[in-house]
Specification:
By secondary structure, the protein is an alpha+beta fold. It has one domain: Immunoglobulin-like. Helices cover 24% and strands 39% of the residues. The protein starts with a helix and ends with a helix.
Length: 191
Amino acid sequence: MRRISKYCATCIVLLFAQCSHASFSTIFQSATVDNKAKTVTFDVGFNQAPDFKTTNAQGDDASAFQLFVNPGHSASGFDYFKSVSLVRGVHIGSSDELSVLDVKDGAFGGERGVTQFALDDSNTIHFTAPFEVLGSSDGRFDYRVESYEFGTLTSMIDSTTATVPLPPAAYATIPTAVMIGVGMVMRRRFA
């Protein structure tokens, strides 16, 4: 019985030790489309402060992320082979720039552009890229955010942008003005 108790206690200690070190991973992401400026602003939040400066002996970053963009919506889920661009948050080092690369048939190509990023105190990275650089004509696209710790994939989040055109303010006031006018006529008529 003592042997089983020691075995169980050892397993519990090892389990908690394993769980106490959470891998660097993405915990949320968002994309805000600005149709007027023809840009998309991304916010990617991590479970801990990213370490973009440290690499291991193989050259893998302690913390890295990638954002794949697929301008065509796929009902069956994200498809790497339909991606046209990749925001590369790998080998950043001391730079505040992210390269946006061409992707063709799942392989990386030349650079489409560069965007600046900022990291705030809450472990969230922010950056904005033009539609054209992302390979989108209208700001609507599927995308995938992946995070890595020393070259090992730790999280993957698929999402899609949605643009909802809002009517001009005048369109919202017309029904209100009509209702007020009808109310005034009715009030005079029955007063």
